[in-house]
Description:
The chain is α+β, with helices and mostly antiparallel strands. The chain is built from eight helices and 13 strands. The chain has helices spanning 3-6, 16-30, 40-48, 96-110, 125-135, 172-177, 227-233, 235-254; strands spanning 9-12, 52-57, 63-74, 77-87, 115-120, 138-143, 162-168, 195-197, 199-200, 206-207, 218-224, 257-263, 268-275. Strands 1-2-3-4-5-7-6 form a seven-stranded mixed sheet, with helices on both faces. It has a four-stranded mixed sheet with strand order 8-11-13-12. β9 (199-200) and β10 form a beta hairpin. It starts with a helix and ends with a strand.
Amino acid sequence: MSDAQAAFSIRPFRTMDEFRGCVALQEEVWGEGFSERVPVAILKVSQRLGGVASGAYDADGELAGFVFGMTGIEDQTPVHWSDMLAVRPGLRDAGLGRRLKLHQRDVLLEGGVRRVYWTFDPLESRNAYLNLERLGVVCREYVEDMYGESDSPLHRGIGTDRLVAIWELDTPRVRARLGEKADVGQGPPASPEAAALEGGGDGAPRPGAPVLGRDAPVVTVAIPAHIQHLRRDDAELAREWRQATRTVLVHYLQRGWEVRGLVRGGNLSHYRLVRGE
């Protein structure tokens, strides 16, 4: 852990002021008046029922980020739905988001929970990289407009399509990604012939035509590396990427492939979809 990461302490919210601070940070990240913010009462009650509502605090006691999720029962087994994770602007890409997820994992393992779900926008390269490469999730489900129309400026104009992350907390894959055991490998490498969606062009990248007939063990799907810049500068192009990636990801996930990795690049990143065994 770097000195910068060690400067933050992560713990459950305790006081009403701390719970209110979490609500305020939600609005800072997702926009003032964000209608889907989690209120103080739900944050507080979740802790009594096996949920996680915790914050990362700097040396001055200022809230820098938080993680929130709820625990329930699926097929008679305890599972957790991780609903929100946010880091204050200016403190991102420093490993704090990953530390918050590791705190969440520790709390859940201690409580007997082994599986966690959450969703993320498949066009958000940075989030996808954290989830797939740094935490070891896999994705087998794509949901179109999962949350309907959102009033957050981060989602406006491109809808709320989501990949559903599955985080099996104590599997060899996850433990390898977290550095707890030797890497188990990522399966066979992708080849150019396995591309299900390519991107290119000068300047802002454009999606190619979806290719739905691949039968390779691994297929790749391009996404823009910086969707928020693209959405701001060319909303129509951002919508083209949404439609193209939706077509490809829905097609292959419904036919037995699962998302297992992401390779980041300058203008483009590439998902790795591996056919399930």
